[in-house]
Specification:
Order of helices and strands: HEEE
Helix content: under 10%
Shape: globular
Strand content: 35-45%
Number of helices: 1
């Protein structure tokens, strides 16, 4: 979900997209994770979505997973 302003100030404008569409539409954006939560097979990341030349907005990424999570920090 992508909100229209920064954390605690924005409203959800009604757009939720899948991961593949997000990766295509926001390929040049940076997602700064502010909080993360792990709940069984559900992972939630909340943070700011940064695009060059624009003010950051809030974004929430929900991932339903099975198995182990693998973090790759230096690709």
């Amino acid at each position: 979900m992508i909100l229209d302003r920064t954390v605690y100030e924005g409203e959800f404008s009604g757009k939720a997209i899948g991961l593949k569409e997000y990766m295509k539409e926001y390929a040049h954006a940076e997602f700064e994770i502010l909080t993360e939560g792990y709940f069984g097979y559900s992972t939630t990341y909340t943070g700011w979505l940064w695009e060059k030349g624009k003010e950051p907005v809030s974004a929430i990424l929900y991932i339903w997973n099975s198995g182990d999570m693998v973090y790759r920090i230096d690709c």
